[in-house]
Batch of 2 targets.
Target 1
Amino acid sequence: MKTYRIAVIPGDGTGPEVIREGLKVLDAAGQKYGFTTDKTFFDFGGARYLKTGKVLEDRDILAIQKFQAIYLGAIGHPDVSPGILETGILLKLRFALDQYINLRPVKLYSKDFCPLKGKTPADIDFVVVRENSEGLYKGMGEFRNKGAQDEVAIQISYNTRKGVERCVRYAFEYTRRRNKAKKLTLCGKTNVLTYAWDLWQRTFNEVAKEYPDVKTDYAHVDAAAMWFVKNPEWFDVIVTDNMFGDIITDLGAMVQGGMGIAAGGNINPRGVSMFEPIGGSAPKYTGKNVINPLAAICAASMMLENLGEAEAAQAIEDAVIKLVTTKVKSLAAGQMGYSTSEIGDMAAGAFR
Ligand code: IPM
Ligand code: MN
């Protein structure tokens, strides 16, 4: 039997609760589809930081590099100042493992959970390919005259041809493989950010020539935000930079029904990828067994797809669709009509 070596980082807040349910479903799917997972747990997160002062060390990176995939709950702790855990753990993992793609499917599973009037699952089914290693997230910049009246803070968006090209190429390949509308939209800001988006646009146009079967389009990010709400059916695959991708995928999560269902993958196509529910640690719901584990379950499905277990991945997604269309009353924490563990039990039950 096939065994996948998985690193599990339950993390902070509700992370451990949702990861527990995700693993329940993963194990059940494995039993049916003939694979197992060999799981190693890592305690990276806010609690460990508060105890030891450690975020993520080089030896942690070396250890976690040996796995076939990483399954992450949430990083974020109310007692730790903003930025420390985000840059010290989450972004450090993304950068150190060169997970240069952040893949965020935006799919509405039930019209009942869509905040947009008149939109159905047929209208909302697209994927955002977010560049995940450069741009404003590079952390480049400086203060000048910090604290003074004439202070200047500079934050640089750093875009390399190689970095942009590998992302754009991934997006074209993905659009082709997805094989739906076969349309790739570049989402940028060519009218104002004339260095970065000139490079993106040129790279996009050049790579596009190699994919004559893929239709191309362009949208300014502000207009794209409007169309996510007005005409989400226009989109198939969107490729964008790190910062814009961060913002529009939260909007995407809302139009697909909320953080309770939104999952993402931090992908290194030739290395170790990491899958996570994108909702964060939700401290106020911690330990109450009320948080929605479906996003984590969807992240497990994405992980299986990435490991080559496409059939099992699809079956998990089908189980999620069945739950949200027949049982779950709301995707919001505490309003689902079921507890966290009951949702996990029902999703796992699809494999028995
Ligand atoms: C995300 C998150 C992270 C990001 C934060 C927690 C650093 O918002 O995964 O989208 O900005 O990338
Ligand atoms: Mn974000």
Target 2
Amino acid sequence: MNKLRINSFFNPIYVTRPLFPDISRIVEKLEDIWKSKWITNNGSQCKILEKRLVDILKTSYISLFNNGTSALMIACKALELSGEVITTPFTFSATPHSLTWNHVEPVFCDIDPVTMNIDTSKIESMITTRTTGILAVHAFGIPCDVLAIQKIADQYGLKVIYDAAHAFGVEVGGIGIGNYGDMTMMSFHATKLFHTAEGGALICNNRDMKEYIDILKNFGMKNEENIGMFPGINGKMNEVQAALGLSMLDLIEGEIRKRKKIVDFYRSRLRDIEGIYFQEDMQGVRYNSACFIIRIDEEKFGKSRNYVYDQYKKYNVFTRKYYSPLCSEYPHYKDLPSSHPKNLPVATKIVKQVLSLPLYGDLSIHDIEKICDILIEIRNS
Ligand code: T4K
């Protein structure tokens, strides 16, 4: 057995840690909720959060949800997707499952080798008479080629939904990422940059649609008199979730700055290591440094991604293989015609290489230095 020269971390280092505002900030808001005796069903905390997010995300219409998955399910319903929808296999399970819950077949399209998002040059060849939309993912907060996707959608009359689970605060050309496509989902899960413990939002581009979404997430009822207008679900965010979100909104810019510093440090330490690759920033994009993903080329690095992942654990470092396996490899989807690996050569290769390294504002540069040193020790072991 190889002996570790670098001491393992005393406390576990996880891939991420949720942002926790000072407890006094949330207590103040909880006191407001207690006084009002209003704890869910579009209370004042939710209303304030919605308004603040409209400004912060530079968009017009936002509906809050109890989680990102229910928001995505409602997006598919509200846009009346049916038949087939073209999507990426390199994502979290919630993306294709939201289609399946709407009786829509996900058609998996290969990904771009640089951005790891849906490869727009391959979308057109997958469109059939049954195709009604494109469900693209800004994986890890890296924007898709939104202009190319819109061009295809316009040409073929398709709806576009973005799964922007990780893309809070990302902008393309100065425009909030939620303004692209017909609808954008954001996740406010604890593992995300901005969170409400569990939570999410749907961004759309007109008032009528927002009203419809708000009805769909409230069982399909508009008010006491107008019930059962549509087959809705319960997708409502509650007041405690919204209060938590409000109490940390002011911390987000600082958190992004800290994370950016960490990402820059990772890049400077890992750039010259043979067989380790990562994405550089694209011009015109405002990033949120949600995640730091490396790709490990086993041949050049000398060790496989799985080996590195396992070895890191011995140092008390818990990296993640996001998003492995591909959704097209899940038992539920593997027999779809589009799932065959020969149709997905880039995704099939990349999914064996990716590793999400620890990234959150509270990590010190000293910790990051050690995480990088460990990677080198693993290579030399
Ligand atoms: N689309 C995409 C592209 C997504 O990535 C996601 C969610 C969705 C849609 C759906 O959105 P939501 O319905 O979730 O709003 C996590 C999250 O549960 C999931 O939200 C997220 N993507 C996915 C990428 O990651 P797990 O099972 O890998 O998380 P877990 O519990 O292992 O946590 C990861 C690490 O975070 C832990 O090792 C330690 C740390 N952690 C986690 C939690 C929950 C904490 O320190 N404290 C905590 O409270 O799925």
